[in-house]
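Quick one: structure for this chain?
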Amino acid sequence: MAASGRWSTDLNGGSFAWSYDIGVPPVPGDLKPGIGLSYSSASIDGRSANSNNQSSWAGDGFAMGQGFVERAYKPCADDGVENNGIKPGDLCWAYDNATISFDGHSGELMSVGTDEWRIQGDDGTKVTRVRDSARGNGDDDGEYFKAVTPDGTQYYFGYNRLPNWAAGKPETKSVYTVPVFGDDAKEPCHAATFATSWCQQGWRWNLDLVVDTKGNDITYWYKPEMNSYGRNMKAADDTPYTRGGTLERIEYGQQQSDIHSATVKPMARVSFGTAGRCLESGTVCDFAKIDTNRQYWYDTPWDRNCKAGTDCDKGRFSPTFFTTTRLDTITAQTLQADGSYKDTDRWKFDHHWGTADSDYQLLLSSVQHTGLAAATPVAVPKTTFSYTPMPNRLDKDGDGRLPFHKKRLTTIADEYGGQIDANYSAPACSWSNLPAPEDNTTRCFPVKYQPVDTQPVTNEWFNKYVVETVIATDRTGGAPDTMTKYTYLGGAAWHFDDDDGLTREKLKTWSQWRGYAHTRVEAGSNQSFVSQEDHYFLRWMDGDRSDPADKAKKRSVSVSDGEGTTLVDDEAWRGFEYRTEEYDAPGGKIIGAFAPTPENIEKWGLN
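Got it. Here's what it folds into:
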């Protein structure tokens, strides 16, 4: 039995992860895109009253990320802006923040100089920001980002007009923009009045060019989805912005010097087909009829759509971010002698609606791979997915609110006869015995929510789920079942919300999950376990706020590495596994231990 996907558990945080590789044709030079479908249960745990809860284009909990840099802005209403006593729905500049995610690198970008950045935790990647109006990417000053990894590979985000571009050539359309007001002095686009202090700024710069040290390249092309809203509370000032978008194609097997060449084309291409987020039969899902049939686009807030050139009234006075599409197919192609492209492989994605509570989830039902290179297509069996609903919100009788059920992936039956079953923990808290947020060591967490300023802040509690067991089954009968059991020892940790300059102080609390410091893994069968490993982690709890009434009060946290060294639970080592113990049998004696402490890593030169 060969597995078509891989599963894992985040031993520090307890989340379940599963991935499925999309194999693309090889090309000379070996530089090709890594494309894969990935699932994380942690993304579902994070769904609360304060989050955008529309499922991704691949299905809720699934991602197919190609890479991006993203910046967050703050509502002008939270920045003290009022017009005649009315707070506008526009976005305002907060500060120069950004996060990055690409090719195994991700995290907050930390400034180390003018337009120079490092990824939090510094993996050696150097990130620079460039402003170049010649890029024509829609950002007010042509802002884009470049990352260089330690091996010398260059990644461009928002470059738009690729090398060798000339008028009439296609653009990658990789930057998604939104109107942003610089209401304070020295902020971008600041002017004499609030009404004139705005410009289009990027909120996402998608990866659109990769170049290795040999000049081989990969290019990424996008299809943005546009909308308009009534800027500064004026319906007639309909202002365009990018509400979302999808990856349209990837091209590779080409030298950077040949981009846009009419004769030297990329040797391979991957195309992404989309369909509407409407699953009804007949013609009701025709996008041309969405104004009439929007009730069938269950998770699409089409009432927030405003056509360019029309008055954006009826409350459409703020940008709303959503998509009308879902991933339908991925098709790999290779260049032929006549200059055309031939399909070699296709993956088909089917979806269904999850309807727990009154909230709809777009859920991935199956993926099917079909080989197209031969005269007769060859389709392998589908990989199918099953889900179990779990309440995200800690429900309370009589509060008039739903428990916010969300379905989590629990069973994967793959195309080669394997099956994975993930079993999660039960809700851990009750309203009759809630912990103090600052001392919380349970698997539930507080969320402060205020729909509008005229209403009081609501204190909600939400559940966090961790994986307890994972069972692997050979449905062909050729191998025995295996089981992996996870035991989380000691209390969980929750960190006070970081001072990100975006979240209002009155909405901050201890809601950042930092997981467990000690996790035990036992493997074997459902009859008995034959192995045990214990894993120990740093969580960055040193310096965390410890008093709800006094932000200056901080906690000091340090741990022993088991080898006589005391470690400070520092920010730089968040999630770091500082000790691993291997036992001769479950509950037996330690036969091996590895302690790659931060001090030893520096001493041994392992970083």
